Structures are given as structure tokens and as C-alpha cells.
Q: What sequence folds into this?
């Protein structure tokens, strides 16, 4: 995504994409064999006669079936989908310009949030506000409250280990800025969350504290109904499709957590090796001062080791700043999806309990009670929203990890090429020189 470098092309508001147009992530074509779990099939769409109807979700969110949701992922940086991206977007958000604030009671960092849009929901085409981490946290909490059926992107962890990471260092602040920028871009890309009133306030309000004090006043009816679902209902069993999603998320979290731990150990060992190399290279230079005939090749070896140190330092920085944050984001993403699954289970359990209560009365009721119908609507809303968000998350995940692994491969190739070039450069110095006549 271009991130607001230039004014977006004026377009009418795209609106949310119809959930009925989104294929289920577990579905496969009937003519093909079952593929890996959670592989979406683009072939399963509802007939046009159904998809073209005017629709709205049970939570009251209008659904515009005339325009698709725009794609979003790091693949845009590869310029594989830039043309489509620019033409379909009508909201651009970027996070930049971190600044340190020192007050009597606390020290904190704020970030500039710039918005450019052509949506009618905004009074102005461009906004620029400053936000600190706790403001981003407020936004995420509000999205969870008002859109409980949707997957809310995770924020980077707030707390760091004191004495290990300096949260005011340039490296840490830049890593957090990138994560916060990605957080807002994921919301911007979402066909429902991007229209949330709290998101609008976050992007436009000069004084956000006034809105924070309103508390529950801005919660939607859907949010309230789900928020107050008690945990007294026990779910018999998840439907197979959601059980498969839960099993996948457990395995995914386990594998990604293992990769994260090993990657951190590798980086730690690289840094320890780097310390040894920095002590190792100068020894050859000192030795060269004592051996006149060997001084040139020894100095060459010392310089070669220095070049290898620089290359290894760059590789370690790339892994720390680019590789690890993506792993951690998706570990948190999986936990967020698990939380949405649990909410869905609670609503289904409540629905099952109400059905049982009606059946036990043994009365001939020609019509299902209104509270049971409302509960059924909430279950269907959860199912549709969760499957649509899982589809979107899977697409983003495939694109993000393809970009991540391509970058990791490229960085490693560059590292070994630099080391190879450094060692090849000293071979002429080590070879026997021909005797002069």
C-alpha cells in the first residue's frame, strides 16, 4: 500500500463486502480432493440471484454487494497488485514521526497518524493527529466491544523487560512504529472494521480523552448483547468446521512458537559469535606488526574478518527487526482468533440452552420465542463473520509469510556472498609471489 504518499484517487465509499460472497476457508470444490486444512476454495460462491440481494447483518451493519473489499498485504510492496490496490482504496492511513515526551510523572512516545480519504463518513479529506500506545490499545478494546463477531488485529506487546530492552531506543521505537502502522492498515483493509465509529474517532479527534470517558455509551446493541453473555452455558460440541479451525490454530501457534524460540536462540548465538569475531580479527593485525614478511596477508585476513563481522551484524539486525516481529504478530493473531471462537461458542451454548428450555415446556408453540430467534441470529452472525475473517486472515498470512521467507532467503544469500567475496579477496595475498629476475 502506498501509505498516503500521494492523494488517493477520488472514489465513492466502497462499503463492506458481502459475507455471502466470501468462500469458507475449509470448503473445497466438490470435483477436487480435499486439500490441506483451512485452504480456501475460490470456487464456492452463492448464486448471483442470492448474492445480489440487499443484505444486512443481524448486528445491523449494512452490506454493500456492489463493490468488493480491496486486497491488503505485504505483497503490495512487491508491486504485484498495486494498480488494483490504488483504484479500489478510499482510505489511507500511515503511522510515522515518533516523538519522545518527558513530563513530571511519566515519559512516553507519541506517533503521528495521518489519514487521507474520500469517504463520506469523514468531514475532511485529510487528518493528522498524534497518538500514544495507550490510545491504540483503547481503539482495539473498543473494536472488540463493538464488533465482537470479528477478528481484531493484535497490537505489539506493551511491556518489555527492563534492563534488557530500552523502550526509548531508536530501534525499539521504530519496530513499534512499524507494528502500529501495520495494525491500523489491517483495520483499514477490513470491510467492516474500517467503518467502525470508534476507528473514525481515533483517526480524526484532536482530543481523544473526551471520547475515552464515554465508556459504554458508544457500544452497539450487538456488542452489548454478546458482552453480557454469561459463561453459565456449556457447549455440547463445536461444529466440525469450527472445530477444525480451533485445531489448526492450536497447531499453528505451537509451530510458530517453536520457530520463534529457536530464531531467538540463533540470534543470541550470532551476537555471541560476533563478539568473538571482533576480538579475533585484530589479533592478526597485531601479529602482522611483528612479522614484516607476513604483514600484508595478515592484515588482509584481519580486514576480511572485519567485513564478515559487518555482514553478520546486518543479518542479525534484519532477523531482529523484520523476521521476529512478524512471527510474534501471528502468534498474537492466533490467540485473537481463539478468543473469537470462544465467544462464538458461548453464544451457541446460550442458543442451545434456550432451545432446550422451550422444548421442556412441552407446549405447542406455533412460533419460536423472540429471544430464541435473536440468539439464533447472533449465532449466524458469528458464523458468517468468523468464517469471512478466517478467509481474509489466511490470505494475508500466505502473502505475508511468502514475503517474509523471500526476504529471509535474500538476506542470507547477501550475507554469504559478502563473506565469500571477503575471503576470495585475500587469496592473491596468500599465494606465492613469482620470483623477480
A:
Amino acid at each position: 500500500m502506498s501509505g498516503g504518499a500521494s492523494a488517493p484517487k477520488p472514489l465513492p465509499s466502497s462499503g463492506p463486502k458481502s459475507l455471502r460472497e466470501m468462500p469458507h476457508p475449509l470448503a473445497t470444490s466438490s470435483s477436487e480432493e480435499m486439500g490441506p486444512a483451512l485452504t480456501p476454495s475460490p470456487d464456492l460462491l452463492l448464486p448471483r440471484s442470492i448474492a445480489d440481494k440487499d443484505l444486512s447483518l443481524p448486528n445491523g451493519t449494512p452490506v454493500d454487494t456492489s463493490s468488493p473489499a480491496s486486497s491488503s498485504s505485504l505483497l503490495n510492496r512487491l508491486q504485484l497488485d498495486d494498480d488494483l490496490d490504488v483504484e479500489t482504496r478510499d482510505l489511507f492511513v500511515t503511522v510515522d514521526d515518533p516523538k519522545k515526551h518527558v513530563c513530571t510523572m511519566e515519559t512516553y512516545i507519541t506517533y503521528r497518524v495521518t489519514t487521507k480519504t474520500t469517504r463520506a463518513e469523514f468531514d475532511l479529506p485529510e487528518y493528522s493527529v498524534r497518538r500514544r500506545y495507550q490510545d491504540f490499545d483503547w481503539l482495539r478494546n473498543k473494536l472488540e466491544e463493538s464488533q465482537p463477531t470479528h477478528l481484531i488485529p493484535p497490537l505489539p506487546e506493551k511491556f518489555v523487560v527492563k534492563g534488557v530492552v530500552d523502550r526509548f531506543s531508536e530501534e525499539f521505537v521504530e519496530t513499534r512504529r512499524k507494528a502500529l502502522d501495520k495494525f491500523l492498515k489491517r483495520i483499514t483493509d477490513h470491510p467492516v472494521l474500517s467503518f467502525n465509529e470508534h476507528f473514525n474517532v481515533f483517526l480524526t479527534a484532536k482530543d481523544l480523552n473526551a471520547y475515552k470517558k464515554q465508556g459504554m455509551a458508544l457500544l452497539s446493541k450487538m456488542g452489548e448483547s454478546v458482552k453480557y453473555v454469561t459463561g453459565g452455558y456449556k457447549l455440547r460440541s463445536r461444529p466440525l468446521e469450527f472445530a477444525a479451525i480451533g485445531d489448526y490454530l492450536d497447531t499453528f501457534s505451537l509451530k510458530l512458537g517453536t520457530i520463534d524460540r529457536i530464531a531467538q536462540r540463533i540470534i543470541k548465538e550470532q551476537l555471541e559469535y560476533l563478539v568473538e569475531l571482533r576480538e579475533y580479527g585484530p589479533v592478526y593485525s597485531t601479529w602482522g606488526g611483528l612479522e614484516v614478511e607476513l604483514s600484508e596477508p595478515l592484515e588482509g585476513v584481519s580486514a576480511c574478518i572485519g567485513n564478515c563481522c559487518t555482514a553478520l551484524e546486518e543479518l542479525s539486525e534484519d532477523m531482529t527487526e523484520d523476521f521476529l516481529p512478524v512471527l510474534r504478530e501471528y502468534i498474537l493473531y492466533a490467540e485473537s482468533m481463539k478468543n473469537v471462537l470462544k465467544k462464538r461458542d458461548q453464544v451457541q451454548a446460550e442458543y442451545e440452552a434456550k432451545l432446550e428450555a422451550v422444548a421442556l415446556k412441552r407446549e405447542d408453540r406455533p412460533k419460536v420465542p423472540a429471544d430464541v430467534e435473536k440468539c439464533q441470529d447472533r449465532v449466524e452472525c458469528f458464523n458468517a463473520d468468523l468464517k469471512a475473517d478466517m478467509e481474509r486472515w489466511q490470505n494475508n498470512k500466505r502473502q505475508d509469510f511468502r514475503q517474509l521467507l523471500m526476504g529471509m532467503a535474500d538476506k542470507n544469500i547477501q550475507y554469504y556472498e559478502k563473506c565469500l567475496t571477503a575471503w576470495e579477496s585475500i587469496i592473491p595475498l596468500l599465494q606465492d609471489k613469482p620470483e623477480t629476475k
Q: What stands out?
A: Strands lie at 55-56, 62-63, 91-102, 107-117, 126-132. Residues 1-84, 216-230 have pLDDT under 50 and may be disordered. The radius of gyration is 28 Å. The chain has ten helices and five strands.
